[in-house]
Amino acid sequence: MDTPERRVAAELRASQSGRLEGYAAVFGVSSHDLGGFREIVRSGAFARSLKSSGHVRALYDHDGRSVLGRVGAGTLRLAEDTRGLHFEIDLPPTTVGKDLAVLVERGDVAGASFAFRVPPNGDEWRNTDSGIVRELLDVDLHEITVTADPAYPDTTVAKRHIPLLHRRLALALRYLETCR
């Protein structure tokens, strides 16, 4: 089984009611260079996955021991809007939940991320004048996470499983070279 890929976005805020909200992905925004290619999440990439998202959890720093909410429990709400993948988390009254609310309010924690897998035909690779671009069209969403140290705080893309992506990049490059 492949390890899910992870991405980071930067909008996150805490409300007075113990709720966090933000965007785990922003549509149509090109990532920074991710090791030879850039990536764009397309509107609708989460639509199929959200229809059966009861298993999706909200975590702190991708740590399965720091569960903040879950769709199936009603403590995590996810929706695609015109901007991206929006989330709301009802923080638990735990040490992690309370500490995280303070860290977000202070601005020490400002990132959000998501972990996913790409199903067959869920992405497209293109060779453009500015380099190789991977477009995410359909993903299997596994989690969203709140993170203290996003790698790319101004974009939707950051953490990833490098060995898996290098294999995919090598295949994509081989394909693009045969199309010349």
Account of the protein in words:
- This protein has 180 residues and is α+β, with helices and mostly antiparallel strands.
- It has one domain.
- 19% of the residues lie in helices and 41% in strands.
- The strands form 3 sheets. The chain has a 5-stranded mixed sheet with strand order 1-9-12-5-6.
- Strand 5 and strand 6 form a beta hairpin.
- It is elongated.
- The termini are far apart.
- About 8% of the residues have low confidence.
Features:
four-stranded antiparallel beta sheet; alpha+beta; five-stranded mixed beta sheet; 3 helices; 180 residues
Could you give a quick summary of the protein structure above?
This protein has 180 residues and is an alpha+beta fold.
The helix-strand sequence is EEEEHEEEEHEEEEH
Structural class: alpha+beta
- Main beta sheet, described? 5 strands, mixed
Helix content: 10-25%
Low-confidence stretches: 151-164
Residue-averaged pLDDT: 80
| DSSP, total strands | 12
Fraction in beta strands: 35-45%
Count of alpha/pi helices: 3
Major sheet strand order: 1-9-12-5-6
Shape, principal axes of CA atoms:
elongated
Number of discrete domains: 1
How far the N terminus sits from the C terminus, by CA atoms, comes to 33 Å
Task: Give the topology, please.
Layout: E1 5-9, E2 11-14, E3 19-26, E4 37-41, H1 47-51, E5 57-60, E6 63-70, E7 76-80, E8 84-90, H2 95-106, E9 111-117, E10 123-128, E11 131-136, E12 140-147, H3 162-178
